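Q: Protein A?
A:
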Amino acid sequence: MQLIESGGGLVQPGGSLRLSCAASGLPFERVVMSWVRQAPGKGLEWVSSISVSSGDPYYADSVKGRFTISRDIAKRMVFLQMNSLKPEDTALYYCATSRSGGNRGQGTQVTVSS
């Protein structure tokens, strides 16, 4: 199984980024895919999940209304659209097959700073 994240970068507060995750080697249509993040000096934090088959999304309270998770079944990809970014969103963002962050990729860095 392989998960490859991309799309991170440096953005000013209030800005937007779109993260992408390419998945291979797993039964993509039967899983729930998640985004988790790890801020400097802190543990893993669940951000959002999506049922690939139904498209039902789930969000942590800290990102609800600002982030949108989606998937493209044909391309085997999961996305995280992040709007109204705050400095506290700064973290290494991982795509994972569980809310606890198990079976995650290498991550993509998101830095929100002026």
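Q: Protein B?
A:
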Amino acid sequence: VQLVETGGDSVQPGGSLRLSCVASGFTFSNYLMSWYREAPGKKRELVASIGNAGAVLYLQDSVKGRFTVSRVNAKNTLYLQMNSLKPEDTAVYYCYVPSLGSWGQGTQVTVSS
């Protein structure tokens, strides 16, 4: 199992980013996928989960209306579209397959003026 996140960057408040997670080594379309984030000094927390067919199963209250989770099974890719970014969104964002217990290496998102 390999999960490779990309798309992290440093942006100003109000900016947007799209994170991608490309999966390999398992049948991506069969699995629920999640995005987690870990801010400095804080526990890793669940941001969003999406079912294998694309139904959004969970979106953290603090990101509702700003973040969108999606997937393209034909591309083995999971996405997190992040709009109206706030400084409190600063964290390392991880892709995760709950039923396999597999994590990506993470991608850094920094929101600062």
